Amino acid sequence: MGNTIEEVKKRRTFAIISHPDAGKTTLTEKFLLYGGAINLAGSVKGRKAAKHAVSDWMEIEKERGISVTSSVLQFNYDGFCINILDTPGHQDFSEDTYRTLMAADSAVMVIDGSKGVEAQTIKLFKVCVMRGIPIFTFVNKMDREARDPFELVDEIENVLGIRTCPINWPIGSGKNFKGVYDRNTETISRFIASDNGHKIESVEAKLGDSNLDDLITKEFHDQLVDDIELLDGASDEFDLEKVRAGKLSPIFFGSALTNFGVETFLQHFLEMTTSPLARKSGDVEVDPFSEDFSAFVFKIQANMNKAHRDRIAFMRICSGKFNAGMEAFHVQGNKKIRLSQPQQMMAQERKHVEEAYAGDIIGIFDPGIFSIGDTLCTASNKVKYAGIPTFAPEHFARVRQVDTMKRKQFMKGIEQIALEGAIQIFQEFNTGMEEIIVGVVGILQFEVLQYRLQNEYNVEIRMEQLPYEHVRWIENEDIDVSALSVTSDTKKVKDFKGNPLLLFTHPWSIQTALERNEGLILGEVSDN
User: What separation in angstroms does the CA of 236 have from each of 109, 162, 165, 167, 432?
Assistant: First the structure.
């Protein structure tokens, strides 16, 4: 038991969130460099670059230079075992990000110093607030022209609605970027650009000391004195309890691409965060230090290795210790199963795992029995974690395979991709599966679906966009769906699990359905 407690104490599990192109994947790679997990950071610039981000594994990600799936990466640093969940930045994949945040204990929010708070950041941030998880802010790209740091801090506070506490403060930006001032240690990390790159040096800096004029110029020295005086008087004081409660976000300035400020950020982050927290099973809090193993599935990915045609269920361990080949009770399936082929990921690289602890993320072979949100536990402690809601799709298309002889591959592919949660499948209420309607949260998911069916299942498809924009699950039990009175542009369908729902073209059609059918209850998410 003692070893389990020590191992769990070392764990830190966090997600990295940002708007696309803010530098999230670059920051992730710099963390891995410090942990010795990789020797050379990839480049996500350009479609034809020879190197690709270590955390981007799907071919379409490499071609487009974006992350469309969440990656799970583990490395050791300074006595800690760190699990990073790298999330898709593109808004069309926000549902995958939401599920990933369910598995994290804290979040690192990356903000572009020239663009500030962007649309996707707001959406993801709200999910963090909803879960009450601590948020650490890294303002990136200070080596490029950036906005006034006070403006950035105000925007974070006003748009996201969280108080902030800058731990360090930038001195200039772009060509005039001189470095950052650490408010606690009263030191300056100087950023010194040169023809063949840059170098970084740390110097003690008493504000007002004339030596600083030579190091960062008198103009920037005077500006820094004014800035820090203003910060000391106006900004929130650092309060670790508020940080851990998700009410105060520590802010750090730096440049992930040039590796400036990244290690400082990582060190502070590890000091401020805690080991894995207790998770709720009904009204009971499950202690992560308990000897009893428990975990929940938050992601399923098919065909990570095309040659093996495999399906991996990613699970977050919430308590106890996992041993390779152990038996666990699958709560939703109501039976014992052996957890086989356990592995941890480094993008497309995998390593076999013999043991893992609360806070760790592992992938296990899924023969087709798991769904997102499923709980696994030792039979003695029968816990059941809350399910992960299914979001209402906003875009719909009728999907058909071009070659009718490939119906079997088409159905297998579309069902497997649907089980991952990337798409949702619907069918006409009183027909078979000949007519398939696919719903997605973001329109780019259609492109990913088409790409994956072609590349992983050798099936070419045609898609016909449909006008529906709203979906509502029918929550009444024992209701005759065919007898419901709805407008002519409303479609009655059922989801993959047979739950009845309605597809609407206009919001007023939803209201009409409720008015015409007394007692009808419609819901925007499905927890089934």
Answer: 19, 11, 6, 11, 60
Tokens 């900004």 appear where?
235
The mean pLDDT of 240-248, rounded to a whole number, is 94
Instruction: Evaluate if pTM is beyond 0.85.
Output: no
| Architecture of the domain made up of 14-67+86-95+105-272 | 3-Layer(aba) Sandwich (3.40)
**Selection from 29, 55, 25, 28 nearest residue 41 by Cα:** 29
Q: What residue ranges do the domains of the chain occupy?
A: 14-67+86-95+105-272, 279-377, 395-523
pLDDT in tens, 414-438: 888 887 777 889 988 766 556 799 9
DSSP string, 194-239: ETTEEEEEEEE--TT-THHHHHH-HHHHHHHHHHHHHHHHHSPPP-
- CATH architecture for segment(s) 279-377: Beta Barrel (2.40)
d(CA 53, CA 69): 13
Beta bridge partners of 472: 502
Q: Yes or no: say if 275 and 4 are a contact pair by the CB < 8 Å rule.
A: no
Tokens of 72: 């799970």
Q: Is residue 3 predicted with pLDDT exceeding 80?
A: yes
> Which residue intervals of 361-471 are DSSP H helices?
407-419, 444-457
Structure tokens at 211: 């030596």
Identify whether the C-beta of residue 1 lies closer than 8 Å to the C-beta of residue 84. no
Q: What CATH homologous superfamily does 395-523 map to?
A: Peptide chain release factor 3, domain III (3.30.70.3280)
Q: Comparing 6-10, 76-80, 189-193, which segment has the lowest mean pLDDT? A: 189-193
